[in-house]
Design goal:
The chain is α+β, with helices and mostly antiparallel strands. It has 2 domains: 116 residues, OB fold (Dihydrolipoamide Acetyltransferase, E2P) (Beta Barrel), CATH 2.40.50; 100 residues, OB fold (Dihydrolipoamide Acetyltransferase, E2P), CATH 2.40.50. The chain is built from 6 helices and 18 strands. A hairpin with a 4-residue loop joins strand 1 and strand 2. The longest helix has 14 residues.
Amino acid sequence: MRFRSALKRLSLVTIATAASLSTTGLAAPDLTEGERGKVSRISDGDTLYLDSGLKVRLAGIQAPKLSLGREDFTDWPLGQESKAALARLTLGRDVQLRYGGTQRDRYDRALAQVFVGSPDASGAIWVQEDMVRSGMARVYSWPDTQQDTARLYAAEREARAAKRGMWALDYYAVRKPDPDPLAQDVDSFQIIEGVITSTANVRGQIYLNFGSDYRTDFTVSLTKDGKKRFKKAGIDPVALEGARVRVRGWIELYNGPAIYLSDPDRLEVLD
């Protein structure tokens, strides 16, 4: 099978053997030490403020969103509970920021891994991992930041198996690649699990198809930057035909429902 030959070429893949799963991204990076400070305020389940005024977005995860005063936006289920969980972990406590890659976004938020206590000390809490393990956030890797994605996925699998938090609700359930139900999820973030039935490279555009009719079935399409990142990771996505995968991203409608994939770490290859 082409998929097996592809796995042999994944020299940079992180293998999470205990869960019989591999992510397609790079191994855990070395992080750069950033600011320290006391957490003074919590905005939502993945955003906090330091007493210096620095706004920090917890990179690599996505908590249930809150409207935060935005019109025509409804709180996601467990949004307030996720905010409360982050407050219990961090509010009023000293934290250490660490960076992998881009340190600020266009809103001047710090894009950081956050630790309660020194990251190198025994008993330190990696906040992202704790939020994911408790079911109060899910993994959402970003192309320009790095973290130990394999650890985060392990925490997410544990939470999902135990039906903690988000994973007890159908709203956050892992979807099948059935096009008709997925078409109802356009403009929402979803996790889809299924078999890549075929792949194609059409004039440089790469498609991963989850059905026999690409015009109506669910499809994953790599963005231009996504292709570069797969290549950097030593992965040929066209060779993933026949693989069972779990992919996450925002559902769009192009022919059938589609996800435009910009980050290899958003694609889990399941054994």
